[in-house]
Amino acid sequence: MTTATQNSDRLVIAGKEYNSRLLVGTGKYQDMDETARAIDASGAEIVTVAVRRTNLGQNADEPNILDVLPPERYTILPNTAGCFDVDTAVRTCRLARELLDGHKLVKLEVLGDQQTLFPDVIATLKAAEILVADGFDVMVYTNDDPIVARELEAIGCCAVMPLAAPIGSGLGIRNPLNIRTIVENAKVPVLVDAGVGTASDAAVAMELGCDGVLMNTAIAAAKDPLLMASAMRKGIEAGREAYLAGRMPAKRFASASSPIEGLFF
Fold first, then answer.
1. 205 exposed, middle or buried (CB, 10 Å; 0-12, 13-18, 19+)?
2. 218 among the known binding-site residues?
3. Is the pTM of this model over 0.90?
4. How many whole angstroms separate alpha carbon 264 and alpha carbon 23?
5. Choice between 55 and 137, residue whose per-residue pLDDT is larger
6. pLDDT at residue 7, rounded to an integer
7. What is the pLDDT of residue 59?
8. What digits encode the pLDDT tens for the residues 86-105?
9. What is the rounded distance in angstroms from the CA atom of residue 57 to the CA atom of residue 166?
10. How many CB atoms lie within 10 A of CB 98?
11. 26 annotated as a binding-site residue
């Protein structure tokens, strides 16, 4: 990628530009120090925080995640992890807005059951309608159904985030054709959310044309989270460059790198 392309190729979400296309979570680390160091190694600029599991100031006598992830440096993305119904998800977003002084950007997820953590699509659509009408910029976790992605975009969500595989599974992208279809039809950013396990998974997501990848467990559960964070950063960058470069057509048979036509014998 040329310097000019690098300078102009930025992720834009809700009108704000970002250099990094890697978004990361804050759960499952050993402590806040490891959280901060891993996120720094990832190069991420958007950090998602589970409002129901993390202290953003609602508990004055507990450590505040914002002390190690200052909003002046990172865009904090409150999420509704652990919400299984519309009312709880909407209430959680409104709480986050209060705690973060009117912050509008949120990640919506309404889960269907405890075992799979798949999204409840019907409840997600309803919650998205309420939040968009209430002035939120909604990034929405969903399944890899192109029709549902289209409906969420029509509601007014500022980014659609289909899963690659179940949350925390590390299985990688199980249905690349659906992800590609969502990307090809979307007019808002598409980010893979959930299921990435290693840097090659992140690269594949970017090669499919996704605008970014959100991950947590893939970094936090690695044997060396800081090293994995660095690997993910490079995987995102390599996959994006490969997508912009345009890969060669896949061929069934060999095509010699050094053609024999016109050689002297």
1. buried
2. no
3. yes
4. 55
5. 137
6. 60
7. 83
8. 999 999 999 999 999 999 99
9. 30
10. 12
11. no
The separation between CA 205 and the C-alpha centre of its own chain, rounded to angstroms, equals 10
Reply yes or no on whether the pLDDT at 242 is more than 80: yes
54 labeled binding residue? no
Tokens for 11? 């992720």
- Structure tokens given for 46: 């958007």
d(C-alpha 81, C-alpha 108), whole Å: 8
Adjacent-strand bridge partners of 152: none
Which residues partner with 76 through β-bridges? 47
Q: What is the mean pLDDT of residues 231-251?
A: 96
Contact 236, 203 (CB under 8 A): yes
With vertex at residue 199, the alpha carbon angle to CA 195 and CA 200, rounded to the nearest 5 degrees, is 85
Q: Which residues contact 9 (CB under 8 A, 6 or more apart)?
A: 1, 240, 244
Residue 195, marked binder: yes
Average pLDDT for the chain = 93
Name beta bridge partners: 141. 161
Enumerate the active-site residues. 107
Amino acid (1-letter code) at residue 209: G
In the DSSP assignment, the letter for residue 29 is: -
Residue 35: pLDDT over 80: yes
Q: How far apart are CA 109 and CA 79, in angstroms?
A: 7
DSSP letter, residue 168: T
Residues 40-86 pLDDT 10s: 999 999 999 999 988 888 888 888 899 999 999 999 999 999 999 99
Residues in the chain: 265
Q: Is 168 annotated as a binding residue?
A: yes
The SS3 of residue 119 is strand
18 Cβ contact list (under 8 Å, min separation 6): 10, 11, 12, 45, 46, 75
